[in-house]
Amino acid sequence: MPIDRKPLPLDAALVVIDVQAGFDDEGFWGPRNNPECERNIASLIDRWRTTDRPIVFVQHDSANPLSPLHPANPGHAFKSVIDGQPALLVTKSVNSAFHGAPDLAAWLRGRAISTVVVCGITTNHCCETTARVGSNLGFDVRFAIDATHTFDRADVDGGVLTADELTRVTAANLDGEFGTVMRTDDLLAATTISR
Prior knowledge:
Blueprint: E1 13-17, H1 26-29, H2 37-50, E2 55-60, E3 88-92, H3 104-110, E4 115-121, H4 123-136, E5 140-149, E6 153-154, E7 160-161, H5 163-174, E8 180-182, H6 184-189
Parallel strand pairs: 1-2, 1-4, 2-3, 4-5, 5-8
Antiparallel strand pairs: 6-7
Helix pairs in contact: 4-5
C-alpha cells in the first residue's frame, strides 16, 4: 500500500549522507550518474535552513587506508555543497547512518522527530541502507532519489549494471515498502510552510 504523500512536518530531519570529496575520484569508483545530485542536495539544505528544520550531516570514516574516504585522506572532507553547521554530525564506518555515533535514532526520538528525508551518496549503498534501517526502526522515511547518485557496478555474472539501473532498482525496492521515494521539487513543495 503506498505511503501517503502528505506535506512534511515542520520538524522533519534532512539526513545528508556521505557527501564527501573522495567520491569525485572516478578512477577509484568508476562512472557515476545524476550530475544534478549536488545541486539538488544544496537546494534541500537551503530549504531546510530557511524553514528552520533540523539537518543531520553523516560522514563516512572508512577503515581502509586506501579508500578516498579514510579519515587520513583529503577525500574524507565534505564537498563544498555541505556548508554551515548541522544540528547533528554522525560519523560511521558501515552503511547505515543509524549505526554511527552519536546514535541517530536516539537523537531523533529524543526530539520526538518521526520523519526523515534521506539524500546523499551512494544511492544503493549508504542511502538505501539508511532508509531501510530507518523504516525498520519506525521512522517515516522520504527518499530524495534525485538528490542521490551512485556508480556503475559489476554484477555477479561478469556484466555491468549502470548507475541509472541501480538507481531505478533502489527506487523500486524502497517506495511503499521502506518509505516514500520523492523528487527534490516535490520535497521543496512539501516544505513551503516555515516555522
